[in-house]
Amino acid sequence: MRILLVEDDPVLRGQLAASLQDAGYAVDVADNGRDAQFLGDTEPFDAAVLDLGLPLVDGLTVLRRWRAAGRSLPVLILTARDSWHEKVAGIDAGADDYLAKPFHMEELLARVRALIRRAQGLASALLQCGDLVLDTRSGRVTLAGQPVNLTSHEYKLLAYLMHRPGSVVSRTELMEHIYAQDGDRDSNTIEVFIGRLRRKLPAPMIETLRGMGYRLVPGA
Questions:
Q1: Where are the beta strands (DSSP E) in the chain?
Q2: Which residues is 27 bridged to in the sheet?
Q3: pTM for the complete prediction?
Q4: What DSSP letter does each residue of 160-219 carry, written as one string?
Q5: Is a pLDDT exceeding 70 seen at residue 3?
Q6: What proportions of the chain, in percent to the nearest 5, are helix, strand and coil?
Q7: Which residues contact 211 (CB under 8 A, 6 or more apart)?
């Protein structure tokens, strides 16, 4: 899953990016509203964390422009704790959730997980496909109750498929959602990771639809 992080404070931006990456997300960053708007208009993100107090273009304007252009990515806005009017304005402008500064990193991660789940129509933090279970809170994957050890890229790929069970996902879509903009994108690596996952899971769980992509289905 791919996150757009927009924060002008370099220390907080670094902390947030590191925490999101450690949680298994591909992260693109922007430190001003102009770049944030451009990225949100041109790249396919699964969610955005958007500070409102930004240089060049403020976060509220960025959000309004995204929504006016039909961009539906889930957005978590960051506001000053005493700026209740910012929270109201942000929600009215189309934000899906807000978090007041200062905040605990675990709360931000929990809210991001919830935004992505809701966007896919999923209610639980536990994603399940047959006997395969992925806990989005801990990053733990089990098959019939037994742990499945995955590399970070294998986990990112599986997590994206499990957020779309039964849906056909193309290689291009996978590349766009498991790598940040500056990542080393190569469609051949997707095939490599699919092959590795099939060796760790029942092979029939990941179907290949020739010329279309991959689909996750309950194992036989």
A1: 2-6, 26-30, 47-51, 75-80, 97-101, 126-129, 132-135, 140-143, 146-147, 206-209, 213-216
A2: 3
A3: 0.85
A4: HHHTSTT--B-HHHHHHHHS-TTS---HHHHHHHHHHHHHHS-GGGEEEETTTEEEE---
A5: yes
A6: 45, 20, 35
A7: none
pLDDT digits (tens, 9 = 90+) for 118-168: 888 887 889 999 899 999 988 899 999 999 999 988 999 999 999 988 889
Dist CA 178 CA 3 (whole Å): 10
| Closest to 162 measured CA to CA, from 19, 24, 28 | 24
Instruction: Look up residue 21 and give its two tokens.
Output: 């990456």
Q: Tell me the C-alpha distance between 16 and 35, whole Å.
A: 18
Classified as helix, coil or strand, 102 is: coil
Q: Parallel, antiparallel, or unpaired: how do β-strands 2-6 and 26-30 relate?
A: parallel
Which residues are CB-neighbours of 139 under 8 A, at least 6 positions away?
23, 24, 155
Helix (H, G, I), strand (E, B) or coil at 131: coil
